[in-house]
Write a structure and sequence with these properties.
Elements (H helix, E strand, L loop, with lengths): L1 H38 L14 H8 L7 H19 L3 H17 L6 H10 L9 H12 L5 H9 L2
């Protein structure tokens, strides 16, 4: 009988150790999954496969130093709404064009953030003839890389 109690106790301890090990293993797997998720780089383009809103994607991939990410995401969401209404393009397309313009300007050593560029275009008075957001981004890039400042670019765009 004492031997049977010993075996039952031993089996109980083994079972307890195994159950504890499972919890630790599951926790370790969860931590590993979170780390892998965090290390995943942001996509260069916001396509239909990306599980992220345009405003979050644009803020996260921007070169801007943001002290209040939530406020910046909200500001970007509002800018995207206005831009989509004004230019007749999707939020995703506008976010992609803004990011592309930021990247292109960076290559030419102009440190202008995608969200600030978007705000500039939203605040731009209406041009003589309607232009798409994409076209305005291209005009802006061409004029900016020729050395024009924002006021001169605005004056040039307003005559188009």
């Amino acid at each position: 009988m004492p031997f049977q109690r010993f075996l039952v106790s031993l089996l109980g301890i083994i079972l307890l150790i195994n159950l504890t090990g499972c919890d630790a293993q599951e926790e370790s797997e969860t931590v590993d999954a979170l780390l892998q998720q965090e290390e995943k780089p942001l996509p260069l383009w916001l396509d239909g496969e990306v599980d992220m809103t345009p405003q979050v994607w644009l803020v996260e991939r921007s070169i801007a130093e943001v002290s209040d990410k939530e406020a910046e995401v909200q500001r970007t969401a509002e800018l995207l709404l206005v831009a989509a209404d004004r230019f007749g393009e999707s939020h995703r397309m506008i976010a992609n064009r803004s990011a592309q313009l930021e990247d292109m300007l960076q290559e030419q050593h102009y440190n202008e953030t995608a969200v600030d560029l978007l705000a500039w275009f939203v605040d731009l008075p209406s041009t003589k003839s309607p232009h798409s957001y994409s076209a305005l981004c291209q005009y802006y890039y061409n004029l900016r890389t020729k050395g024009l400042e924002k006021l001169a670019i605005q004056d040039s765009l307003l005559t188009m």
